[in-house]
Each structure stands twice: as structure tokens, then as C-alpha cells.
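User: For documentation purposes, I need each entry recorded in a consistent format: the amino acid sequence on its own, followed directly by the corresponding C-alpha cells. There are two entries in this batch. Please keep commentary to a minimum and don't merge the entries.

Assistant: Recorded as requested. Entry 1:
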Amino acid sequence: MTWSEAEYLNHLRSERRAYAWVMRRHGGLTAADAERAALEAYPYEPADAPYRWLVFHDEAWHWAMLTIHGDRYWAHHPELARPTDEYRARE
């Protein structure tokens, strides 16, 4: 990736916010627990980490749904296969 450190940090914060939102709205976590979960799901990785960008290949919705509903959540909950309008409108 050719993003600057500032761009990486902005994207990291954005994905953490999105993940925490899903964990509160769909996972039933408190705000504090959702924030902790987001930090665990999206830890800061140094610029030289070989897979630093890998977590961004799918959006936070997907990673949160995997955490909440498990593998193949889209097969068991097809209504959650794509982010909801509410998720898209949150910001």
C-alpha cells in the first residue's frame, strides 16, 4: 500500500468506529465493550508489518458479523449478507 501513516490511522479509526457500531447494534455489546472489541479486531500495526492492510480487504460489517454470527453468517442470516441502510447512514 502507498497510503501515508495519517491515511492509515484515519482508515483504522473509521473501521474501528464502524465495527463498534455493529457490535453495539447487532451484537448487544455496551459502548465500552464494543470499543474494546474494535481495538482487538483492529489493532495498530507498524508500517513495516507485512500484512498491515489485510484487515481492510473486507469492511467492518463483515468482520463484526463473523464475530457475532460465525462463519457463513450470510447463509444463516441472508438479510445480513450486505450492510444495512442504517449501517451505511451512520456517518
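Entry 2:
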Amino acid sequence: MASSRSVDPAELRAAIWAVSSWLRGEGPDPARPELAAAVRLSLRTLAADAPGRSVEVRVPPFAAVQCVEGPRHTRGTPPNVIETDARTWLELATGLLEWTTAVEAARVSASGSRADLSHWLPVIRL
């Protein structure tokens, strides 16, 4: 699990900026460390904005966080799981992609009654 410690907004903006041309389809693939930083910081921001442990958001292989208030999950597979790839997550996190569009296009796997992040997205605007 990624740490839930607070994220420096300037650090988040810098990490997102480093991958922004790629997210818009205007630049080359980012280096793995740049992509990892953007994913991890944006997931930590989500966890800070939506504190709790009822939903697990996974962006393999970079990070996973638990967030959203509700019944606390402690062992095994959580009842509310969201999983997606790094590009889709960052498009959601920056507002380049709407939650419902991503789910309908099967770019996001969301299971469970609380597995809807639309209220907390985007975490930062490009």
C-alpha cells in the first residue's frame, strides 16, 4: 500500500506536469520513474481527499491505496476494488477522462457498492 501521508501540492503538480504531454497524446512515453511518481502522488492525494478504508484503488505495478469512508477492510480481498492502468488513472486524476466514460469503456474495473470515485475526481487539473 502507498503511504497516506500528505502530498505537497507543488510536488504533485511537478509530477503531473512531467507526464502531461504524454497524457494529451502529444509526447513520448514518460520514463518509468516519472510515471511512477505521478501515479503514486495522485493516489496519495485521492487517499487524503477521501479518507477511509472501504475502497482499494489499484494501479499496478505502481501503487494501491485504501480510501473512502465506510466499513473498514482489514484482511483478504476488499469488497470494493478499483483497478486500472497508469494512463487511465492519470487521465481520471487530471480530469482528461470522466469516471463514467472509463467504466463504460472497460478501462476501469470497479466492483462493490462503494466503488465509484466520480465524487473525488479529478484530484488535480491539467
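Summary note for entry 2:
The radius of gyration is 14 Å.
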